[in-house]
Amino acid sequence: MWAFIIRRVFATIPVMLVVAVVVFLLLRLSPGDPAVLIAGDHATTQDIEQIRIRLGLDKPLLVQFLQWLWGILQGDLGTSVFNNRPVLDLIAQRLEPTISIAILTMSFAIVLAIPLGIIAAWKVDTWIDRAIMVFAVAGFSFPVFLIAYLLVFGFALEWSFLPVQGYRQMVDGFVPFIRHLILPSVALGLVYTALLARMTRSTVIEVLNEDYIRTARAKGLGMDAVLLGHALKNAAVPIVTTIGVGIAHLIGGVVVTESVFAIPGIGRLTIDAVLQRDYPVIQGVILVASFVYVLINLVIDISYTLLDPRVRY
Amino acid sequence: MAPGGAEACYHPKILERHVKETILLPTDAAWTPSRSRNPVLAFFLRHPTFVFGSGVLAILTAVSIGAPLLTGYDPIELNIAHKLRPPSGEHLFGTDAFGRDVFSRTLYGGRVSLVVGICVAFLSTLVGCVIGLLSGYFRRLDGIVMRVMDGLMAIPGILLAIAMMALLRANIAVLIIAITIPDIPRVVRLVRSVVLTIREQPYVEAAVSVGTKFPRMLFKHILPNTIPPIIVQATYIFAHAVLLEAYLSFLGVGTPPEIPSWGNIIAEGRLYVQIAFWSILFPGLFLGMMVLSINILGDGLRDMLDPRIARKM
Prior knowledge:
- The complex is a heterodimer of chains A (313) and B (313).
- With 313 residues, chain A is an all-alpha fold.
- Chain A has helices at 2-29, 34-39, 45-54, 61-73, 87-122, 127-139, 144-158, 174-208, 211-218, 223-260, 266-275, 279-307.
- Chain B contains 14 helices and no strands.
- Residues 1-34 and 308-313 of chain B have low confidence and may be disordered.
- The chains are: A mainly alpha (313), B mainly alpha (313).
């Protein structure tokens, strides 16, 4: 098992290396001089020269990449072109709202989706199953901003039940903090629920077709006993995998949701960076987001060995 | 793809029948007769999801292309005197803050979604197919290509697209490329997995032993097997691309703002969410309906092309 875990940890290195190369090349492959791009339209030749030297753009490409990579490995993601602050600090500042939305969304989705998926699989091909599947396909087809604005319109504008937008830090009181996060998390959570419910259903159906389920049924166990005692245990691993894969979708959804509710998180940081042409920040956000994705999937893969006793490496 | 079931599903004979039965159905006279005398009704009863999805998509496509016939209003003509009017007989979906007709803008906006969606689906499939075929066939290439694809998949697609849009000039072509690149790894993985299954088949061995050359091998024996799963995958990519285009435009980094696209209309309407909800609601509903219809179409195609895995996914 330890050999597997070590191997799995090392397997993330090439993946992150590819991410780093892509992120690095993004800026270099763009037409035109990156220094000119960063400097903007009103820069003088001196400004451009300064930026070029500061970013090391006057050195060969490979040297630039290795220096940049060496910096990242030491936790230096560069400095913002816009306000000269370390990118890592800027990201750290914006983490609280984004992580809060992500956790609430996930919790909401897991609590709702897994029972829905199981019920759909249990009652497969009945109207209950169909209704859940219609909800599921609609849930990930309708844009998150439409769901968000419908919620805003209903709960915030018409009934003044919840705040329309904005964010309160957790230190300023837990109740306002949660109140500001309910609508964003529910809006995004509905999309995520749809995805997860569909995956849960297919996984449980697949498990229900296994031989040992037939054996369990044959020895006289009722459907509910089989479902709870045999099927769920075996469906757990693929369901957890889905949760991990869904993280990538979640990050995209968070960016849009933050924009709808004017929440100062990572998404807002990215969009602001794009508008200000602050490339080091954009690069930093992509690196951190990809790293989080790789890390979560690593944890999930390793947790297999704990969840599923059949998995032996 | 269903584990285990894949081999049998993609056997050329079965596949040929599936493709004939499904893709070529409306024009194929050799189709097995159904109990019902009305072939249209019989087809509808056998594939309700496919018919519903393609029907809704066809209607949405028709109204976007035929927009000039359906509305007398220019989608970009300003008419400040008529600003923020609620839906009425004169302006079916009301007007926006500049007095532009939302109905007209919504119809025309569908064109952007369709063009972007179709181009992304086509391009990512084409590029993904070539890479996937080569990677699945040449083992030496496989390791490197798969590491690169893993790396690309680790980057949240929306962030990669945002970064590319920030670097390059904002126009529809760049937008299409920015949405295509994150989708390529999905096609590559799919095609590769089909190729890996196929190349173990006895008939491939037989073809090799009678001296079939590589290009003929690839195009005659392997490529045809990848088509059904690719068609299904391309449909989902189409849906995803339409949604992503709207998200990027909504965030202000997608379609240039002077072109009416659903994301742009909603982005402009958000400032008036309280007084002119219609300028968010209608384009949002159209967008949701289009993505939903494409997703349902994909589900229908999947059920038709491979009934064995239909229940599972």
